[in-house]
From TrEMBL:
Protein name as annotated: NAD-dependent malic enzyme
Upper lineage: Bacteria, Candidatus Portnoyibacteriota
Gene Ontology MF, one: oxidoreductase activity, acting on the CH-OH group of donors, NAD or NADP as acceptor
Entry note: cofactor: Divalent metal cations. Prefers magnesium or manganese.
Residues engaged in binding (S)-malate: 287, 317
Active site feature: 36 (proton donor), 91 (proton acceptor)
Domain Malic enzyme NAD-binding: 160-384
Protein family per UniProt: Belongs to the malic enzymes family.
Organism, scientific name: Candidatus Portnoybacteria bacterium CG10_big_fil_rev_8_21_14_0_10_44_7
SMART domains given in the database record: malic (SM01274), Malic_M (SM00919)
Pfam families, sorted: malic, Malic_M
Binding positions for a divalent metal cation per the UniProt entry: 133-134, 159
Length: 389
């Protein structure tokens, strides 16, 4: 199938992918009087007197905003808010289909961090959470940090944390297959944007040794003291690559057990793979084209190969994380999504692949498996309640 042509046809036929439907009938005068005026005034008065009832009498209890400025869309870059809308619509229908969460796509016509923060804060009366999406680094860090401090609803930047959760889930199972320990492996991450920095933090929480992690950006290996590092890269440089290995991706990969690609297509060569440790794990997650083509990867010693694509084995896709994360957060009325909740989500996803099913081409549940969101939501709620207790 030509997915590009099919997608263009689908979007034009339906005028987008979303609509709003009423939960209640509006067929009679009584229906109108109860659902709207005069009856609705009683609900307004109740909420005014008891603000917490906005969660029990309105859509707030099950509604999030999917917010972008269009500055870092998929593999398309800074294409602006209008061009980002199809992706945000897609995100919204995934929330509904897999998590039962009502999500509104909010595409802001500004790329100023202060204006983004203010705009999102103005939405707080009607939303129960915020999913930030496709906002360029390092601006995305600033926006998320401020919103988490200044809002009383959970804020989650999916490009960072959703990616980290599914990468960890896939890696936990991949390591079981090749019989390696997360605390003993050398990990190379190509790309040092929002997703990569979050992946590092979650891997360390799960037991990876920070001294065994090397990040590579467009200018080469990251190490403490290197030029052209923004404050976020400087922070991560202090805890990774203490040996101060220098060079590019080729130098970083010598002896590496794991390659995680969060960058661009075709940067990983067969020659580089040869220098990696035995039974290497490669997650080539650049979209739409991975860091090494599937056909080339099959001709190397790669033991386990994963991508973000649905037409290859081991699709490492954020849809395994974000619907369940927000389902659990909304159900508990959490005001934050904590690191413990993210870690619990990753273990829940990994745990859904039974030992008898675990193999090099099956390390993570299918993106369409609706059991995943339920399991993630349950794990998130448990982690939240444990910390609350």
């Amino acid at each position: 199938m030509d997915y590009k042509k099919a997608s263009l046809k689908l979007h034009q036929k339906h005028g987008g992918k979303m609509e709003i439907k009423s939960k209640v009938p509006l067929k009679t005068k009584n229906d109108l009087s109860v659902g709207y005026t005069p009856g609705v005034a009683a609900v307004c008065r109740l909420i005014h007197a008891k603000p917490e009832t906005v969660y029990t009498h309105t859509i707030k209890k099950n509604t999030i905003a999917v917010v972008t400025d269009g500055s870092a869309v998929l593999g398309l870059g800074n294409i602006g808010p209008e061009a980002a809308l199809p992706v945000m619509e897609g995100k919204a229908i995934l929330f509904k289909e897999f998590g039962g969460v009502d999500a509104f796509p909010i595409c802001l016509k500004t790329q100023d961090p202060d204006e983004i923060v203010q705009a999102v804060k103005w939405l707080e009366p009607f939303i129960g959470g915020v999913n930030l999406e496709d906002i360029a680094a390092p601006k995305c860090f600033v926006v998320e940090e401020r919103l988490k401090k200044e809002m009383r609803v959970p804020v989650f930047h999916d490009d960072q944390h959703g990616t980290a959760i599914v990468v960890l889930a896939a890696l936990l199972n991949a390591l079981r297959v090749v019989k390696k320990n997360i605390g003993a492996v050398k990990i190379v991450i190509n790309g040092a944007g929002a997703a990569a920095l979050s992946v590092v933090r979650l891997l360390i929480m799960a037991g990876a040794r920070s001294r065994q992690i090397i990040l590579v950006d467009s200018k080469g290996i990251i190490y403490a003291g290197r030029d052209a590092l923004n404050p976020y890269k400087q922070k991560i440089a202090k805890i990774t690559n203490p040996q101060k290995i220098r060079g590019g991706l080729a130098e970083a990969l010598v002896g590496a057990d794991i390659f995680i690609g969060l960058s661009v297509a075709d940067v990983l060569t067969r020659a580089m793979v040869k220098t990696m440790a035995d039974q290497p794990i490669v997650f080539a997650m650049a979209n739409p084209d991975p860091e090494i083509a599937y056909a080339k990867a099959k001709k190397t010693k790669i033991a386990i190969f994963g991508t973000g694509r649905s037409d290859y084995p081991n699709q490492i896709n954020n849809v395994l994380a974000f619907p369940g994360i927000f389902r659990g957060a909304l159900d508990t009325r959490a005001t934050q999504i904590t690191e413990e909740m993210k870690l619990a989500a990753a273990y829940a996803i990994a745990g859904l692949v039974a030992k008898r099913e675990l193999k090099p081409t099956c390390i993570i549940p299918a993106a369409t498996d609706k059991m995943v969101a339920r399991a993630v939501a349950a794990a998130v709620k448990k982690a939240y309640n444990n910390k609350k207790a």
